[in-house]
Amino acid sequence: MGRETGNALATPIAGALGADIRGIDLSEPLSDDVWAALETAFLDHKVLAIRDQTLDPATFLAFSKRWGDVHFYPYMDGLPEEPEVFEILAKPDAQRIFGNRWHSDQMYDPNPVKVTLLYAKDLPTVGGDTLFSNLELAYEHLSDGMKTMLSGLKIYCDGADKSRYGGMSREQWYAKGGMAEKLNAPEQEPVIGIHPLIRTHPETGRKCLYIGDQVQRFDGMSAEDSKPLLDYLMKHIERPEFTCRVQWEPGTLVLWDNRCTCQYAIADYAGHTRRMHRVTIAGDAPV
Ligand code: SIN
Asked: Which of 160, 171, 230, 234 pairs with 151 at a CA distance of 20 to 30 A?
């Protein structure tokens, strides 16, 4: 039974965002009532950890597609049997961990991801949790003067920018995590996104501070001019009061709303393997 949510499915895991869901089986058809409760819980909690699932890639993909059309991820090849499902792999000797920065998925896309679904296949015995930040709370806690100052700004995100990866391309950087054989060169894909810094959620109408590590600068400003404010805002969204921490269990599937959250994959399991399946769902141009 959920706690103080009005939603029988969802049990909050933190004050800021995030909920656990138990007692449903995603490999079976969901009733309309359960599906409606899931959709409501998703908008209310932004991050849902659905526990105790046994999903092959086809079933995982079928559930994912209930949230919309699949968003093409330009930097990786999918699984041979289900090309729309990607494997996020950290081998024991990985030199970097995918997602180990505060980010919202594919901000560099003109139409960034709406929902990401991540399903645990192999987990380290301890570690490998994921942090999430509620960007609506982060916005609400800015002073009125700051909100006014930020209201006209746009963020400039370039997926091909090498400065953040020590001069390496994104593909070279991902390969250091042990995913070389999964990479794809995104020659034909747009990898520049210019979006409002204060973003309005298309379904709830709530405003958020849409920021993350993929932002290079503010549109119309140099990286140097942008840096002090970007650094301040990045620090702001990391405040523990805006966050939750998902501890993965075997069979956990987590889905999150990229239109109002950031996430951070914790790199604290060197010497162990972590393998996840991921599907991303297409979103609209932010407004
Ligand atoms: C991601 O940022 O998409 C991956 C998060 C994770 O692996 O926990």
From this structure: 160
Neighbours of 139 (CB within 10 A): 24
**Residue positions counted in the chain:** 287
pLDDT of residue 49 exceeding 50, the answer is yes
State CA 50 to chain mean position distance.
16
The residue-averaged pLDDT of 2-13 equals 73
CA 32–ligand 1 middle distance (angstroms): 29
Q: Which two three-digit tokens encode residue 281? A: 């769902």
Rounded to whole angstroms, how far apart are CA atoms 111 and 114?
9
Residues paired with 254 in a beta bridge: 49, 118
Instruction: Quickly state the pLDDT bin for 245 (edges 50, 70, 90).
Output: very high
Rounded distance from Cα 107 to ligand 1 centre (Å): 14
DSSP state of 225: H
Number of Cβ within a 10 Å radius of residue 99: 22
| Ligand 1 binding residues, C-beta < 6 A | 88, 98-99, 105, 116, 118, 130, 263, 265, 276
Residue 243 scores a pLDDT above 50:
yes
pTM of the full structure? 0.92
Q: What mean pLDDT, rounded, does the chain reach?
A: 91
Instruction: Tell the residue nearest (CA) to atom 6 of ligand 1.
Output: 265
Spatial separation of the C-alpha atoms in residues 197 and 156, rounded to whole Å: 9
